[in-house]
Amino acid sequence: MRKPVIAGNWKMYKTPKESLAFLDAFLPLVEGHERDEILLFPTMSSLAYAIEAAAGTNVRAGAQNMHWLNEGPYTGQTSPTMLVSIGCRHVLLGHSEPRLYFNETYERVNLKLKAAINHGITPIVCFGEMLAEREDLRTEEVLRTQVQAALRNISASEARRLVIAYEPIWAIGTGSTASPEVAAAAHAIIRHELSHCCGQQTAENTRIVYGGSVKPENIAALMAQEEIDGALVGGASLVPTTFADIVQYKE
Ligand code: 13P
Predict the structure, then answer these.
(1) Residue 176 beta carbon below 6 angstroms from any ligand 1 atom
(2) Which of 13, 77, 108, 156 has a C-alpha 20 to 30 A away from that of 98?
(3) Dihedral angle of Cα 207, 213, 217, 221, to the nearest 10 degrees
(4) What is the mean pLDDT of each run of 10 residues along the chain (251 residues)?
């Protein structure tokens, strides 16, 4: 049984005050909701506030990125120990935005992934192809290469905590959601590659969530796919009622 994860990635939106206002409105809307794990990823400046405001509820807040070392002369970075010290237990890694705009690589994602696991932080590692790669029929090759690089030398027991997000770049912020069938096929490719890297059992147990223009109108059809274990939601996670509607999709 893979418990679904519905996660909101707030990207570079919301001040601490706006984050707290969101939680004030959102927490009562999803109170008692247990079917799905609910995660939010605020910016670093809001994270400690969000963690504190959500303490004792069914919602957890995590970081959008982190460094792999515990400390050092790395301006602008936050370390795993720093995240743990504020009660953070989740981190997004390898999102396509840091990959496209800030030269993030899967080699670094691999170091971060190991550091997260060693510190008891659950990593949500993102994979996804660009439109041109899909049109060139290279989706499978691209996803397999990404998974191999990110999960290099990760053992089955280390991979236990891992959550994966399939986020096709052409679907992010564009309104062109992948069809449930297209998303499920990509998840199957990732799961198959995962079984090569970390064993069959890990592949069967790992949650793979879909991200890219998820909305209240399309979440149920996506979640009806056996292969889809949740969603990573960008824009539609910024409004409490909209995100609550996504979390509470009807099966
Ligand atoms: P949108 O839901 O805005 O398309 O963003 C998806 C995403 O990048 C989540 O990480």
Answers:
(1) no
(2) 156
(3) -40
(4) 96 98 98 98 98 98 98 98 98 97 97 98 98 98 98 93 97 96 98 95 96 98 98 98 98 92
